[in-house]
Amino acid sequence: MLPDVIETERLLLRPFEPDDARALFGWFSLPEVARWSGTGEPMRDVEEAEARIARMPERRGTHPAAAILAVCPDASAPPVGMVMLVPIPASAGVERGGGVGDWEVGWHLHPRSWGRGYATEAASALLERATSAGLPHVVAVTHPDNAPSQAVCRRLGMTDLGLRDDWYDRMLRAFVLPLPAVGTRAPHQ
Ligand SMILES: CC(C)(COP(=O)(O)OP(=O)(O)OC[C@H]1O[C@@H](n2cnc3c(N)ncnc32)[C@H](O)[C@@H]1OP(=O)(O)O)[C@@H](O)C(=O)NCCC(=O)NCCS
User: Fold this and answer.
1) What are phi and psi of 51, to 5 degrees?
2) With the CA atoms of 88, 92, 96 and 99 taken in that order, what torsion angle do they form, in degrees rounded to the nearest 10?
3) Domain spanning 6-178: which CATH class is it, in words?
4) Which of 63, 118, 146, 148 has the fewest CB neighbours in a 10 Å radius?
5) Atom of ligand 1 nearest to the CA of 143
6) How many CA atoms lie within 13 A of 151 on its CB side?
7) Nearest-CA neighbor of 25 among 39, 8, 43?
8) pLDDT for 108-153, tens place per residue?
9) Of the candidates 72, 80, 71, 76, the residue with the CA atom closest to the CA atom of residue 26
10) For the segment 1-37, what is each residue's pLDDT rounded down to a tens digit?
11) In the predicted model, is pLDDT for residue 99 greater than 90?
C-alpha cells in the first residue's frame, strides 16, 4: 500500500473516519453537490453518510494505488470534501484497460470550499500516486453539464474524450490522462 495520508501545499488528505459522517453529510445533503453523481439525490440523514463511510473499504478494494481521502485544509477541523482514486466499473459488455481495467479520479467539495483550487490540488496528489503505482492512465467521468468538474479535469491536463458510455452504463463526458511510466526519463538534449 502507498501511504494513505498525503500532505500537499495546503491540504491534509487522510482516510475517512466514522466521526466524519456529519461533515460528509454536510456536502452530500446539498442538491448542488449531490446532483452530479450517483442517483443525483441528496442524502436525507446522517445515517446514509455513516453507511457510505462504512462502504469505503469495499469501494476502494485492495490495490495499493486505491484511495478515498478526506480533504482537510485544517488538520484539526472536519473535512471539507473528498477525493478518490479507484477502479471504475466498465459498462456492461465493454472491455477496457487491456484486462487490468480503468481507474478514475474524482472529487466532491462542500460549496464553502469551492473556488480555492482545493479539488485540483488534491487530485494532483492522487495523480502522482497513480504514477507511483504504475497505472498507465487515469480517467475522470463527469455529468455532461458539470462544467466546474470538467474545468478541474482541464486544469489537471486531462484530455477531453467527449461523451462516452464506456463506464457506469451511462453517457458521461470523459477525460483521460496518460501517465508516465515510473523510471522514464526525458531524453538528454
Ligand atoms: C467539481 C468541484 C470540486 C470543482 O470545484 P472548484 O472549486 O471549481 O475547483 P478547484 O477546487 O480546483 O478550484 C478552482 C477554482 O479556484 C480558484 N482558485 C482560487 N485560489 C486558488 C489557488 N490558490 N490555487 C488554485 N486555484 C485557485 C481557481 O481560479 C478556480 O476558480 P474558477 O473556476 O473561477 O476559475 C465542485 O464544483 C464540486 O464539489 N461540485 C459538486 C460535486 C461534483 O460535481 N463532483 C464531481 C462529480 S464528476
Assistant:
1) -65, -40
2) 90
3) alpha beta
4) 148
5) 48
6) 9
7) 43
8) 999 999 999 999 999 999 999 999 999 999 999 999 999 999 999 9
9) 80
10) 688 999 999 999 999 999 999 999 999 999 999 999 9
11) no
- Counting from 1 in the atom list of ligand 1, the atom nearest the Cα of 152 is 12
Ligand 1 mean position, distance from CA 116 (Å) = 6
Q: Could you tell me the three cell numbers for 77?
A: 477541523
Measured distance CA(105)–CA(129) in Å, rounded: 11
Which strands sit side by side in the sheet containing 159-164, from one edge to the other? 6-7, 12-15, 67-72, 81-88, 102-109, 137-142, 172-178, 159-164
CA distance 3 to 5: 6
Q: DSSP for 113-150? A: GTTSSHHHHHHHHHHHHHHHTT-SEEEEEE-TT-HHHH
Number of H helices, E strands in the chain: 5, 8
Pocket of ligand 1 (CB under 6 A): 33, 36-37, 106-109, 114-120, 142, 146, 148-149, 151-152, 155
- The strand pair at 67-72 and 137-142 is best described as unpaired
